[in-house]
Amino acid sequence: MSDAPHISVLLDEVVEALGAKPGETIIDGTFGAGGYTRAILATGASVVGFDRDPTVLRFTEGLPADRFRLIQDRFSQMAEHFAPRSVDGVVLDIGVSSMQLDEAERGFSFMRDGPLDMRMSDTGPTAADLVNTLDHTELARILYVYGEEHASRRIASFIIRRREERLFERTLDLAEVIERALGGRKGAKVHPATRSFQGLRIAVNDELGELEAGLDAAERILKPGGRLAVVTFHSLEDRIVKNYLAERAGRTPGGSRHLPQAPTGAPASFQLIANKAIAPGEAELAVNPRARSSKLRAAVRTEAPVWESAA
What's the pTM? Predict the structure, then answer.
């Protein structure tokens, strides 16, 4: 297991967006290695971290017990742990962390051999379960919708043909089959299995459903004036956050591909801090190339009630 530090992307921008002060309570909904938490604690605020990954406990060592606690639960369940309008800020860093990618035994990486797992917790079906049991239509749908892989049907056909001979158990085994399906483009700038592995990981962990539920939970528990900061890493996540905040800020007529139809005439429950997403600067990218696709969107909770669709 890797103990290499995970670099929190857009760290300064997140801290600025949250505007945390001494005496305030901020939720770090995706604690990970605690990068955002440590920066927020440095402002004098208290932090409650959420993470469903049991391996993150090692990163809580040394954090002040009087101003920090970790809840081992999904961030979508924040409202089960906090009363409405009771917290001053929420930060969410969506997706898989670099430390998870670097741990071969977690099964997230197509570059390191390990069990085909991909679970952020230790419960539920694994990626191996999906590729070994789903029919062609559902497997292709996951790769296309969640992985944005346009050759999804061809890849699904190759997977099903191979599993009839031998079930998938290892990450590199699956990556090699995907390479063959796409013509074996080894050495390409983007690995041929990138999109397929992304799609499987999102499906295994219900990441988009978690994100939608987490945004609704943040709307419920933030005080008026409380701030929400969300960092995303690919277009599916960013589109959900962008549409959600735009709708809640009254910027769109309602509804989206992922979200319920908005109630007509509902008062804005969020005010956007910036109209556009914030991207990392050249200095950060030079230190952490993995930040290149990250985006930060932030908003302030208004006095308006929770929207009916999120109640």
Answer: 0.89
